[in-house]
Amino acid sequence: MIGYLVPAIVAVVVVLRLWRRHRRRTPGPSQVRAGFGPFTSDVGLVASREMRERFRGKVFRVGTLLILAVVGAAVVIPTLTGGAPQPRRVGVVGALSAPLRATVVASAKSVGTSVHFVSEPDQKAADGDLRSGRIDVAIVDGRELVVNKPMKPTDSSTTARFVGAVSKNLGVAKAIEAAHLSAAQSSALAGARAFPVRSVQPGAGKGATQTTSIVGLILVFVMLSQYNTWILFGVIEEKSSRVIEVLLATVRPVRLLSGKVLGIGLVAFAQASLIVVFAFVLAEGVGSDLLHGTAPLVLVSTLAWLVLGYAFYCWVYAAAGSMVERQDQAQSLAFPLSLPIIFGYIMALTAAGSGSASSFFEVLAYLPPTAPFAMPVLVGLGTVTWWEFLASAALSIVCTFGMARLAASIYRRAILRTGGRVKLREMLSRAGG
Amino acid sequence: MSGLLELDGLRRRYGTLAALDDLSFTVPAGQVVGFLGPNGAGKTTTMRAVFGLTDLDAGTVRWNGEPVGPTERRRFGYMPEERGLYPAMLVGEQLEYLGRLHRMSAVDARAATRTWLERLGVADRADSKVETLSHGNQQRVQLAAALVHGPELLILDEPLAGLDPPGIDAIGGVLVEQARSGCCVLFSSHQLDQVEDLCESVTIIDHGRLVVTGKVDDLATSGPRRLVVRVEGDRDASWAHGMAGVTISEIDGGEARLVLDGSVDSESVLRAAMAAGRVTEFVFERRRLSEVFREALQ
Prior knowledge:
The structure holds two protein chains of two kinds.
Chain A: H1 2-25, H2 29-32, H3 42-56, H4 58-83, E1 88-93, H5 98-110, E2 115-120, H6 123-132, E3 137-140, E4 144-146, H7 158-178, H8 183-190, H9 208-240, H10 243-248, H11 253-286, H12 295-322, H13 327-354, H14 359-364, H15 371-381, H16 386-414, H17 424-432
Parallel strand pairs in A: 1-2, 1-3
Antiparallel strand pairs in A: 3-4
Helix pairs in contact in A: 1-16, 3-11, 4-11, 5-7, 9-11, 9-12, 9-13, 9-15, 11-12, 12-13, 12-15, 12-16, 13-15, 16-17
Chain B: E1 4-14, E2 17-28, E3 32-36, H1 43-50, E4 58-63, E5 66-67, H2 70-73, E6 76-79, H3 91-101, H4 106-119, H5 135-147, E7 153-157, H6 165-180, E8 184-188, H7 192-198, E9 201-206, E10 209-215, H8 216-221, E11 225-231, E12 246-252, E13 255-260, H9 266-276, E14 279-284, H10 289-297
Parallel strand pairs in B: 3-8, 3-9, 6-7, 7-8
Antiparallel strand pairs in B: 1-2, 1-4, 4-5, 9-10, 11-13, 11-14, 12-13
């Protein structure tokens, strides 16, 4: 994880230094005025208003509580249902030698469980306990295993794997006994280990990390959709209520727009951070393994890409909002705008679910519209290096600057136009000209 | 506080339509100036041009001799025709926010907000959302939004539209008070009687061009003299028919409104009337602003 964090921090510091140098070179009118801090400039005041209004809104408060509830459930429920492994209960009818008991214990360990022996007075009692579920398997006179129902070869439950291992290992142990081998030979055979098998491709499914990836994807999808919608309808509200005329009589369009996306972006980041911290603390508290292994790295990269994704899409939605002046016109815009988000989300869900990434999916991880979904999944699958991660982030930042310039140009021309929907072709031709 | 707004040669075309056609006039400090014109004359476009909300094809807007830029506009106050406030935002917070965008400190913005809400009689609605206010109260809040930062120039697009008489008195009183304190005040309206009551000067435009500008008193007394004459027993004012240099503009119940050209004096008219009978009314009449407006547009 440190291997990702250090370059990420270095990149942020470099970007901040470049930005500050740029600000020193090109002071805007409001910066010429001394005595105004970052949150008393135009951009800061607009951002503060957006944050205050959003934090105050019922949608935000109820939405945050709902998301926290869903994340809480995702963290807690697995620990309640299957978190602590239950020991397999083995009924013993008749005698079972110490070596054979040791073999049963070793078999349990090999499938990730433990064992609890239950003495059964006779076969009939063992059958009754099997039917009632009190025991999982019975060993009768050290020569056969009895289960409640036949087990299919495709059954991959822990009990089935345990019974299979006990059946095989007891057979081997019996064979060793029958061969009358020396103690050293018996020990060598009993300690035999299977050859390790290595795969060229990554394995399907990575347990906790996979679940974290999917939960993170859902969060990014929900939050990007929510905050982009806020941007879209926020711009339309200012245009339709004509408050935009009062604002633009005082504030430059680009600064007004920057304040809006910054304010809503900070609300988004605060909400996402709250959710991530909540998930970490809760997982630690209940002993969940959802945030073990590479899962924290997946979560941090998800947070980073939520910010990058918002930074890219907010300009698109702001420009679109400036071109319409009624809510019903916005409805027809919202769907085509969300298509890349939906596409990236579905592709990423598919990849996270299957546990493998195609070449096409890896390409999506470098395209700014789909990277917020694809790149965290690649991090979860462990198929991306830190420099590939940074390269995709850098590409996204560069494209975001380009998108911001284009959107600001469209916004400036369209926001004061009334009397119907402004045509995109006209805006693009004027923005380019 | 003093200043002079100059609009010099403003031109703006929308396709084939000339919204502003070489429009020039000035707005001096200390006066309420009425900005008149029929619908589509270019009044709103002109006002928006002062705030940079309309791109001009040509022309300059100057404040105290300097071209108007973002810094100057922070000292202006604007009330657009289609009111501009956040519907779901609290009244007091909204005014403070707009004050701060005009570079007021938080303390000053809060104090000015309280002052203006009290002055306009809506202090009890400071914690209400704008959308819950009546039309008249929204109008008052909109005016407060234009005034909260103490502007040197106040431009208001139809500030009296849809107001009841107390509302007109409240807003009109504030406009006059602002002008007396040295502010430049320009406002548009179609309610010519109110304009005549409130304004020292008017500027009339049509098809984006200046038609008439000047003091209301001068415009009312300029042009041909007007007389209202009533002669007992002569309901048709037959004595005035055919009189050289006299045009009868209206006869209403024996009361004749006459327009005199330069070739005839009022004494001649009085003698002619007295010859026809007992004169019960003989009054020089000022032109109403509505007449000035109609004549200017003919």
